[in-house]
Amino acid sequence: MGLVPDVIDLRSDTVTRPTAEMRAAMAGAEVGDDVYGEDPTVNALQERVAAMFGHEAALFTPTGSLANLLAVRSVVAPGQEVLCESSAHVARAELGAHGAVAGITMRTWTSPRGQVDLAAISGLFAPDMGPFFVRTTAVSVENTHNFAGGAVLPLADLQALRSWADASEVAIHLDGARLWNAHVATGTPLSEYGAVADVLGVCFSKGLGAPVGSMMVGSAAAVTEARVWRKRLGGGMRQVGVLAAAAAYALDHHVDRLADDHDHARLLADACGADPGLVDTNIVVVDRPDAARYVAAARDEGVLISAVGPRAVRLVTHLDVSAGDAKRAAEVLARL
Ligand SMILES: *Cc1c(COP(=O)(O)O)cnc(C)c1O
């Protein structure tokens, strides 16, 4: 150790590196050719995750973006639309895949905390009007909501949306990249989240600490079709049980500990003068007059954070940020 302390990386929960125990689980994984459906570790993980959410089937994907795309296109046909919140990951951070690849358009409502706004959603909703308007066939919600600072969507709001969607014959897609965080923060069983959605995407590569891997979850028919589309889009993988083993290890060992990340996030929010009461999970968004300058100053002190807008700075806690790291980062950020 030199004079420069180790860097604390709060840019994203995707920066985690597999632990020694996770690497051992990966090394020992039984594998087969997953395009043939013959990787036992992948098959077990798919069955396990489908069951966790009370759905029939699931499909392992290299990324959460692909899980979302496969999920959304399973319920929205080309020329139809999905409604989502305006800062949703599907709308902002998937590089237009839903339009570019699947011919799907989006209309959005805006909620500062990324919440379900049923009045806005029903106002946007367009039923089948023949040759006049784009038909709404799905609503997409994100829990926790990334760009809203890891905000949790209350289960009651999701259930109200479910009732409305049933009455309106609209499907619900749940972008659950960080649904594990919502589950740990609220104690809501994963099956309750599964019950409000027709299709979901979940990630193992965020706070759970796996190096790669996400999953689309839905009906057997949707997953059978998604398997074709995954291959069509170049996402068919072979002896990928080594990665599924990392995800399975993460489900066994890294879910409950997300509570530590949430504690660390509140500590950091407090140090930055943000309201810890607004920190639901592991993401803190702080208002700074010059975000880029603040980020540079933190970097000089060995704390990596990101500017997500001219005035907005984002900090994310995760598996590779210890209690000591969180405390040291809090001291640095409080000083700046
Ligand atoms: C990270 C993330 C995804 C998936 O991202 P990939 O980088 O494609 O794995 C999807 N939705 C949300 C909300 C995310 O934060």
UniProtKB/TrEMBL annotation:
Biological process annotations from GO: glycine biosynthetic process; L-threonine catabolic process
Family indicated by similarity: Belongs to the threonine aldolase family.
Signal peptide per UniProt: none
GO CC terms in record: cytosol
Keywords: Lyase, Pyridoxal phosphate
Pfam family, one: Beta_elim_lyase
Domain Aromatic amino acid beta-eliminating lyase/threonine aldolase: 9-274
GO molecular function: L-allo-threonine aldolase activity
Modified residues (N6-(pyridoxal phosphate)lysine): 206
Cofactor dependency: pyridoxal 5'-phosphate
Protein name, UniProt field: Low specificity L-threonine aldolase
PANTHER family (UniProt xref): L-THREONINE ALDOLASE, L-THREONINE ALDOLASE-RELATED
